[in-house]
Design brief:
This protein has 14 helices and nine strands. By secondary structure, the chain is an alpha/beta fold. Helix 4 packs across helix 7 and helix 10 packs across helix 12. The longest helix has 19 residues. The radius of gyration is 20 Å and the shape is globular. The protein starts with a helix and ends with a helix.
């Protein structure tokens, strides 16, 4: 195994945390707020995460969703490299079927040149949006073809990153730049992301690290992690499985305040699932909203997978989740209306585990 690549992947637990803790930033835009404010909060969160000892921070690709401002992960990550010094930054993830592999290789080669040894390339196969928007992104309505071609697209992207197409290949004279053709350099480790078994199995077979979206597909978490571990074959990247899970968690100074904040995310998801996406509602709007019986059932189920409460309660929930799943790393996303609540949540979680800073 290439030791350096493995070291780029594995995190180290800090303080009293059971596993390394990381951050997934959805760059949420709340009612009455702007994308500019959301992106400034992202810088605040990245700097806090670096100062307090979180291992990495990822941003995710979403399109045509008013409540998020993360349609362009590479652009946001470039901004964050200029405001941080040590923390790993990456995509959680880039939706590979939406882009030509060469474009992704060039974008993340550029990021690696900006912040050597700090960039992760997490890849998903979903569109990160609805079907109509995906068709506009891909310039085709045959969306299944992109998902079905994911292994081939992944292989092509990997060869562009390594600059090692074989002689005679149509792309053998094409170089992703910045990249190896310009001299010895590292390259971002590839992660596969998923919310079902497809990417879990593929990551295992290829010996790649795997990230599972527990925060919106909790019922599939343990089956997917089991499949990943059972399928795993040692590779030049890893000699043993390494899996992180995305976790929705929010801590506040008081339990009631945490409940008020997470309810905003739940209402936002109700609207998204019923074709009414919008800005993240305020806590006052979420509390006053009259949920139908079906919506209430969805909210109760949704909030059942959101770890929230005081710092001690969140710490207990995270510890239990790490134990139940055997995850090697927890990546925490704090969904709330305002940036202040999200920043405060990460501060409280860091305090609860005695993280640095």
């Amino acid at each position: 195994m290439d030791k350096n690549r493995g070291d780029d992947i594995r995190g180290k637990a800090e303080g009293t945390a059971p596993v390394p803790l990381s951050v997934l930033d959805l760059v949420s835009v709340g009612q009455g707020r702007t994308a500019t404010q959301a992106l400034r909060t992202s810088v605040d969160i990245a700097q806090l995460a670096e100062r307090r000892g979180f291992h990495r921070l990822w941003v995710a690709e979403h399109h045509s969703m008013p409540g998020v401002a993360s349609s362009s992960p590479a652009v946001i990550l470039a901004h964050l490299t200029a405001h941080t010094e040590r923390i790993r930054l990456g995509s959680g993830g880039v939706m590979l079927p939406n882009h030509a592999p060469l474009v992704i290789a060039e974008q993340f080669g550029t990021l690696e040149a900006m912040a050597p040894g700090r960039i992760d390339l997490g890849l998903g196969r979903a569109p990160g949006t609805d079907g109509a928007t995906a068709a506009a992104l891909r310039r085709t309505d045959r969306l299944n073809e992109g998902a079905d071609d994911f292994p081939q697209q992944l292989a092509e992207l990997t060869r562009f990153l390594d600059d090692d197409f074989p002689d005679g290949h149509p792309y053998s004279r094409i170089h992703a730049v910045p990249g190896p053709v310009q001299g010895p350099a590292g390259r971002p480790p590839i992660w596969l992301l998923g919310s079902s078994g497809f990417s879990a199995r593929l990551a295992g077979v290829l010996g790649l690290p795997f990230a599972f979206a527990h925060h919106f597909s909790a019922q599939n978490t343990i089956p997917a992690l089991d499949l990943y571990r059972e399928s795993f074959k040692p590779s030049a990247v890893l000699d043993a499985p390494y899996a992180l899970i995305g976790v929705s968690a929010l801590a506040a100074d008081e339990e009631r305040e945490a409940r008020r904040q997470v309810l905003t995310g739940a209402l936002s998801m109700v609207r998204l699932r019923t074709g009414r996406p919008g800005l993240i509602p305020t806590p006052e709007e979420a509390e006053a909203y009259s949920f139908s019986p079906m919506e209430r059932e969805f909210v109760d189920s949704w909030l059942g997978n959101v770890i929230h409460g005081t710092a001690d309660e969140v710490r207990s929930g995270l510890n239990d989740l790490a134990k139940r799943t055997g995850a090697d790393e927890l990546m925490i996303t704090a969904n709330a209306h305002g940036g202040e609540a999200r920043v405060r949540s990460y501060e409280l979680i860091a305090d609860a585990y005695g993280l640095g800073g």
